[in-house]
Predict the structure.
Amino acid sequence: MLLNRRDQERRVRSLVRQLFAQYDELRLESFADNLTANAVYTACGWRERGSLESEGLAKIEFVRHRETALTS
């Protein structure tokens, strides 16, 4: 199923709200070259933490804390 960017952001935000019912911090791995997905994560309040060691394709880690989820 293909979603437009607004739908993608809505789904990410919904999932974040559900996960913060149990966790204070969320971590997300993404491929560094997946610019579209990474832009959605950033638009939804995720902050890039840095590169991850990986065999093969480069990966980056995003992080989100519960208090930032309450404001975005």
Observations:
- The two ends are 26 Å apart (CA to CA).
- The chain is about 40% helix and 30% strand.
